[in-house]
Design goal:
The chain is built from 2 helices and 8 strands. It is of the alpha+beta class. The protein has one domain.
Length: 113
């Protein structure tokens, strides 16, 4: 059996690594891959595209990233308040966050080829 690879993009009021109950409702794109290399290449392309679009970025475990612009809010009806809007990017292996990117792959992500 082969590994399942996936790159997920989210949009919501929490960073993507929290995985709160119902986090899947924040998914705005999910792309499946048959091999690791294709998934990593797509993740890196998406990372670069989002990095140019948003002012702020925070990364955890190398493959879970949150992007946002200060002052871009979404209204939370249950808490009656405005919350920061985040766009998330996740690299998943077998439905779990993958965190084994090599240093060379990370340097490529940052444009330091």
């Amino acid at each position: 059996m082969y590994d399942k690879w996936k790159v997920i993009t989210t949009k919501g009021e929490s960073e993507p690594w929290w995985f709160f109950k119902g986090w899947q409702e924040a998914i705005i794109e999910s792309k499946d891959f048959k091999d690791q290399l294709s998934a990593i290449e797509y993740y890196l392309q998406q990372f670069s595209a989002l990095q140019t679009k948003y002012q702020c970025v925070k990364v955890k475990k190398n493959t879970m990233a949150a992007f946002w612009n200060e002052g871009e809010y979404v209204f939370c009806t249950s808490c009656d308040d405005d919350l920061q809007l985040y766009y998330g990017l996740l690299l998943m292996k077998n439905d779990e966050p993958f965190s084994d990117l090599t240093l060379a792959q990370l340097e490529k992500r940052d444009g330091n080829e």
